[in-house]
Amino acid sequence: MFRTCFAATIAEVKGARQAFITSRFEIDSKGLPTDANILEFCFPLGAAAVVPKEYQAVEEFLFALTGGGGDRLYGFCRHSLPPNRPGEGNGRGIAKLQRYPQALCIVSPHPWAQFFFRVLEVLDRTLRALPSPTLNGHAFLRDLDAAAPAALGSVLRLPWPACLHVGSLPRQHRAFASPADPGAWLAAGEGGVLELEVPPDVGGGASTAGIPLAPLLWHLTPRLAVSLLAALLMERRVVVVSADLGRLTAAVAAAAALLHPFHWQHIFLPLVPASLLDYLAAPMPFLAGVPAACLPTLRTLAMEEAAFDDLRDLQRSPAEAASTPKAAEIVRAWAGLVHVARSTGSVQRARSDTSIRAHGFVFDLEGFVNGPRRASRLAAFFAAFRHSQMFEVFVVERCAAAAQGYPLTDAFEAEVSDRVGQGASPLAAAAAAAAARGAGSRIGSLWRKTSDVVRQSSDTLVTAVRTLGTLQDDYPLPG
């Protein structure tokens, strides 16, 4: 479920502000980045930029790390001011003091932002109710770890923290009250049980579960959204800018999820700390989120051919947001564009150098780009897109799946199977025969190139994106 959870804050040491971890609850530290590396993301503008405050709104944001084995880890951070406690201040009880913000952070291999933000919220309010704020051996985190692993869409039921009163949670985060007890929070369940819902599969499987698209599309016009998508598909250097860390990191995560069934293969940094801005001068593709406060420094770097999307001045009205797409509808749009890929494979044999060979099969790129009924505008797009690393990985993955009878079961594969069935492609029958013989069999002898290519359902990428439905069910829009 998660790898580590810790609390961090800022303190002045020899006249300089430094970030340090005050307490930690660790499940598996193997392969985790160093504390210094993680703290750079928890306080992205640097410890010197953090000032003590008397009041501060809660701030939640995420970041991405690379584990020791090359796997991607997600960090979820909650900034809030620690509570004033009796005995602090001037000796007259609880005083209003200026304090440095506290960062609660949890690191997980899962991108479940809203799930872990709720975990951090409960943890934050639990710590405020304790005489001494410590994470060491905390029962709530032990119960959360014991409840894993969890299937997408399932509900975890954990013992309600004994020190936490239900009424201490904000009203907007409570479920509908019981008629018999209007002050109760139904998510607490019966017998003191806290319920946390694991994000459901919205069409992209585990890689996109819990990643809403609204934080990105809410702030972009349709033309800018399509331009951003095109820049990502062409594997350019993409920078998203915002002063709000929560909005910024959620938008970058949504941009990566928008690519499904393709996967961004390059540098992915939803949040770039000020100390790591030099990484963006590297001559390689990246998808990065930069705080607006770092723009002056960013402008001094060599950023040729980088695409910038500034979310600060592109807010849209609720009426315009009603036309943005749901994740499931984007999956259907992609299926309409690339489902013909299943008809351009064959047994490995002599081919031109433009073909992709993998797992005993060959993928005919020329046939895919210039196949029958392929609109000229789409052919031009695919002629450029076929050179991207994400498309090559996509083809290799599908060849591997074909060798096993297409065992993939996500929403994209289901949509493609429906379209292939409508077009009477022989691949569906071949895959079914291979699956019936077992996962170890090959269908190379049954996979034949077919001229009966499935009809195109979308003329252009722009049309596919702009004619989609509403996103309001995917993410709570600001009111």
Automatic annotation (TrEMBL):
InterPro entries per record: cDENN_dom, dDENN_dom, DENN_C, DENND1A/B/C, Tripartite_DENN, uDENN_dom
Gene3D superfamilies the record matches: 3.30.450.200, 3.40.50.11500
A Pfam family it matches: uDENN
Alphabetically ordered keywords of this record: Cytoplasmic vesicle
One GO cellular component term: clathrin-coated vesicle
Locations listed in the record: Cytoplasmic vesicle, Clathrin-coated vesicle
Residue ranges of domain UDENN in the record: 2-405
Swiss-Prot/TrEMBL GO biological process terms: endocytic recycling; endocytosis
GO MF annotations, alphabetized: guanyl-nucleotide exchange factor activity; phosphatidylinositol phosphate binding
Name assigned to this protein: DENN domain-containing protein 1B
Organism listed in the record: Auxenochlorella protothecoides
Source taxonomy: Eukaryota, Viridiplantae, Chlorophyta, core chlorophytes, Trebouxiophyceae
